[in-house]
Amino acid sequence: MPTATTTHRPTEHAAAAPQAIPLPAPLADVDAARLVRDIEQYLAARTPTTAHPLVTKTTQELVAEALGTAAPATAPALELPGRVLRVLPDWVLRFPPVRRRHTAARAVTVAEHLELTALVIERYGWAQSTHRTRSGRRCILGAQAVLYRLGIGDETTVARAGQRMQAVLRARGCTLPYHRWNDMPDRTEADVLALIRTAARTV
């Protein structure tokens, strides 16, 4: 399959006004509402529950502190918003109802961003030579763009995640940019997921 000839950037068109395909008003309202609910569920899953509203430590951390033991490390809740993201065009993520509810970028670590990038590809499918197919499949950059437009991480997070993937490729003797590596004819989805998750584990 031919490689992409244009330069891929997750935020390449962020400043441009989205050319929305008109939807019937009731459908647009329903889709936006569903998307907001999915985002809220994701954010709620990542918010630790504490023993008191004014306490910043989790209940588990407080118990461990009282007993003088180390609190066990907990894996972050890395679950994507619902399947609606697969069928809706990416510009829907910039709908006013979504941005009004989530105006500030949601801070995630680079490792979390990479794990979520892999989950986007696993759930919606993998693509080559395009950010996204009509059926919702994404290349690496397309999956990163979904997270960026949702406000999960920022430009710095995306850039550092890219640097980690490049470091993994360099260690393997590959000098291609990771978006071009994604598009190579002999590439597979398993290769892509392995790269992303190896980068997530890289310090």
Structural summary, described in words:
By secondary structure, the chain is mainly alpha-helical. It has one domain. The chain has helices at residues 25-45, 59-67, 84-87, 96-101, 110-124, 140-150, 155-171, 178-182, 189-201. α5 packs across α7 (155-171).
Task: Give the topology.
Blueprint: H1 25-45, H2 59-67, H3 84-87, H4 96-101, H5 110-124, H6 140-150, H7 155-171, H8 178-182, H9 189-201
Helix pairs in contact: 5-6, 5-7, 5-9, 7-9
Quick recap:
By secondary structure, the protein is an all-alpha fold.
Structural key phrases:
mainly alpha, 9 helices, 50% helix, 0% strand, disordered N terminus
Q: Rounded to an integer, what's the Rg over CA atoms?
A: 19 Å
* Measured distance between first and last alpha carbons: 33 Å
Whole-number mean pLDDT: 70
- Structural class by helix and strand composition: mainly alpha
Unreliable stretches (pLDDT < 50, length at least 5) are 2-7, 9-32, 69-82
Q: Give, in order, the helices and strands.
A: HHHHHHHHH
Number of strands: 0
Largest sheet: none
Task: State which percent range the strand residues make up.
Answer: under 5%
Question: How many domains comprise the coordinates?
Answer: 1
- Quaternary structure state of the chains depicted: single chain
Overall morphology: globular
Share in helix:
40-55%
If helices are DSSP runs of H or I spanning 4 or more residues, what is the number of helices? 9
